[in-house]
Design brief:
Structural class: alpha/beta
CATH topology: Rossmann fold
Order of helices and strands: EEEHEEHEHHHHEHEHEEHHEE
Strand content: 15-25%
Length: 323
Amino acid sequence: MRLLDVRDLHIDFATEKGLLHAVRGVDFALEEGEVLGIVGESGSGKSVTAHSTMRLLPPNAQYAGGDVLYRGESVFGYGYERLRGFRGREIGVIFQEPGRSFDPIYSIGKTMAETIRAHEPELTDEEIHEKSIRLLQETNVPFPEDRLSNFPHQFSGGLLQRIMIALALASDPRVLIADEPTTSLDVTIQAGIIDLLIRLKEERNLSIIFITHNLALISGIADRIVVMYAGLVMEQGPTSEVLAAPRHPYTRALLNSILDLGQHYTDTPITAVAGTVPDPLSPDVGCPFAPRCPLAEAACREAIPPFMQDGHLHRCRFPGVKE
């Protein structure tokens, strides 16, 4: 069953220098029980796209076109009360950098109580306290009852991320947006967070949108991958297919830049993606990756390639060609 359907989504931001074109016609769907990975460099439009599904964008954001459907109903048509009930109860979100997502003067218990009470005002203080403990237990926070009285600065980054996941699950959402949930965490803590999300997905039948710039990380959790660049979807398909036979040069460049464990102790060179991302204030008319692509020809710079089906969807005139 399809839960989310993003259709030709366009999002701009009004700035002092003009309109910043952050998302330029994004299409994808999320099925029930599926993990969808959205990958790409910083500034590619991943987080803006995901947050737009909850209309969680700043006041200068402009929805310039397209639609977001949840269970076939347009999110953009929700009124204030419907939107309040939708956020958290239908879609939960794990934000980047958990250390900056908590109020430093609120204890963890007070933060969780405020979140739970927003969607379940009928619960007593004792019931909220018990539910808070259960949520921390579910996300493997040790000594949960004792930790409710602690403040954010008393936790490591990994434990704060687990508490953030508990908060996102407090209202039993159907969809969970994990926005770079392992940023700034070391490799072993990252693995623990991934294992936790996989377990919660199975136990709760969650659908997850997992946002990251790390293709190696996404390979172990996502059923399908959406590769974004400069506000566009450049390639999307089943994870195994995209990683085994990438059709777009940008996807191949991301894969080639992945470090193997211990590689920095060898003579193997690190292959970086040459060049820089385009200016979103004045995007090129053609393929945005053309200035960095060794395969680009004049036609690539004249218009954005349409989606083509070659194993899976992509936007490239030279699918699968090695540079």
